[in-house]
Predict the structure.
Amino acid sequence: MRHDIPFAAPGQVIGLLGGSFDPAHAGHVHITREALKRFGLDAVWWLVSPGNPLKERGPAQMQRRLAHARAVMQHPRVTITGIEARLGTRYTAQTLRAITALYPTQRFVWLMGADNLAQFHLWQDWRAIMDTTPVGVLARPGERISARMSRAAALYAPARIPGRMSRTLRTAQAPAWCFVNVPMMDVSSSAIRAAGAWSA
């Protein structure tokens, strides 16, 4: 089945939220809506990944995850896409290089929860991501302190944009990142799987 290549108008600023979405849930919806508002984004794309290199167990079947994500996240400015499978990329740095080559007239902001910032230094080519793409970080339960004390946060402290200026991230030149505290929703894919509400 064809994995779509999303449409993007020239000059748009698009937030990219990557993950296995195994399964997508209300927490993903919440931070997506907050990202649109807080960072002044024109659109957000959910990049439903073929698999997470940092996780041993493979996710549920791709088409099932895409279909569920589209049922959960219904917003006119949010696109659910399996573009990584189409591009053949597995790591975020590879995906960003491919997407920016495909969309040379658009700007992209990488979005992540604070839990991902805490272990961002484990990602392949993580410094290349920070050096080329603005990053928007949204607080999640229990991860605020570890994220702010993380290796990435320390190394890129001079590039941090204050939360009160979060909407300037859309036009900032990398390296630039912004940590925003948002009303938090304590729900996770792993908890949903553990409860037996979602199975591969």
Q: What stands out?
A: The first strand starts at residue 13 and ends at 19. The domain at 13-194 is CATH 3.40.50.620 (Rossmann fold). The chain has a mean pLDDT of 88.
